[in-house]
Specification:
Elements (H helix, E strand, L loop, with lengths): L1 H11 L17 H9 L8 E12 L2 E11 L4 E7 L5 E7 L7 H18 L9 E11 L2 E10 L9 E6 L6 E7 L6 E4 L1 E6 L2 E9 L2 E12 L1
Antiparallel strand pairs: 1-2, 1-12, 2-3, 3-4, 5-6, 6-7, 7-8, 8-9, 10-11, 11-12
Length: 222
């Protein structure tokens, strides 16, 4: 699990500091525009705060959890977590000017990783993200549309790629492939979508016998 989380952090540490854009641009392929809109992109400008817990489980046992209180307007995130030594941490990360050392750096890294599992479909417009329609593919016997994500000189591992598998009915992701340059990738599900303050968010991801659950989500709007 540490490898998976670290991979996402390293890729998006520069991208995720930006809030999701408020309008879908004309140069996105139609399948990506549909994804952004179905995920609640038109409502992002109304969001002021997002609270959520990021929980990792395996075989019914909790491996890790972090609680977030993200003040979107102020660009801060108050993060609480327990490290592997059992020490509790309660740190507020400055998202507009990330720390480069200490607990504040760790808190920022947690926000980058955890919020991306929550909001990735809303961040396809971030600067440096290349979005291409991948065409129809088979996912577990079902035909779905795909979106290929790559990156233009951003993040710490800009050669990594993602493939999003999009449900043609809901326009929301059913799964994604993480494809690092090393080749040690994975496929994770996107499931159990719920609407929070106009945002349609997946609350569970499953892969390799593990689960990431986003719990106690609260989206505060204007």
């Amino acid at each position: 699990m540490k490898t998976v989380i670290a991979s996402v952090i390293s890729l998006f540490v520069l991208l995720a500091a930006e809030a999701p854009a408020e309008e879908a641009p004309a140069n996105l392929p139609p399948v990506a525009v549909d994804l952004w809109k179905a995920s609640g992109g038109d409502n992002w400008s109304k969001v002021k705060e997002i609270d959520f817990n990021f929980v990792v489980e395996q075989d019914g046992k909790q491996l890790f959890s972090a609680a977030h209180r993200w003040n979107v307007a102020a660009m801060t995130d108050a993060v609480k977590w327990k490290d592997k030594e059992g020490k509790d941490h309660d740190v507020t990360a400055n998202l507009s000017k990330p720390a480069t050392e200490g607990e504040e750096k760790t808190a920022f890294a947690r926000w980058v990783n955890d919020s991306y599992w929550l909001l990735a479909p809303l961040k396809i417009r971030d600067a440096g993200v290349k979005v291409e329609a991948g065409g129809p593919k088979d996912l577990n016997g079902t035909s779905v549309e795909t979106i290929n994500l790559s990156f233009d000189k951003v993040g710490l591992t800009p050669t990594d790629r993602y493939v999003l598998y999009i449900d043609p009915q809901t326009k929301l992701p059913k799964a994604w492939d993480y494809i690092p340059q090393s080749g040690n990738g994975l496929q994770a599900t996107w499931e159990k979508f719920q609407n929070f303050g106009g945002l349609n968010l997946a609350t569970e991801h499953n892969f390799n016998g593990k689960s990431i659950k986003l719990t106690d989500i609260k989206v505060v709007t204007q």
